[in-house]
Amino acid sequence: MVSTNGKPGVITETTTFQHVVSALQPEELAVVSDIILKPPADAPFTALKKRLCAQYADPEAQRLRDLISGMQLGDRCPSRVLLEMLSKAGARINDDFLKYLFLQRLPTNVQQILAISNDNLEEMADGIIPTSSAPVVNAVAASADQPDLRIMLCEITSPLSRLEARTRDQSRGRNQRRSASRSR
């Protein structure tokens, strides 16, 4: 019953389209219903395949974004985080980049120790983190060459106050001259 377009062993786009449509589940049919109701004349199977792949495929870029942004160490041991990263990344990321991403999830003091090593990072991190129980606080010191904002604010407000006072005095003088000329 397979349409071969008159050539033995050659299956047409339309035949493949029909076979795939007959095998789809109801929720998949809903995704491609417009293509099923009005299939393209030239390549119906290709259109169907593109839609299904776009809908259900997990794009590599999205997986990498999830890998980079989503995983934090929290209270988990580093080996668990690395295992999760490995399972999400698969073979798509080279080992050096994966090592970089893994190290970014660790505390700074542990990063400094592990940066020079290539072997068993997760085991070493599992051993280092419990022994370095002191919490690390990253702080930024104010630079001595930066002028103090209070001094700058005073330098701006002082001339501004004088300008406001001068403007008030000038407007009072005009008002006094006007009222004197009106009374005459």
TrEMBL record:
Q: Where is this region: Disordered?
A: 164-184
Protein's recorded name: DUF7041 domain-containing protein
Q: Where is the composition biased (Basic residues)?
A: 174-184
Instruction: Please state every residue range assigned to the domain named DUF7041.
Output: 9-68
Organism in which the protein naturally occurs: Caerostris darwini
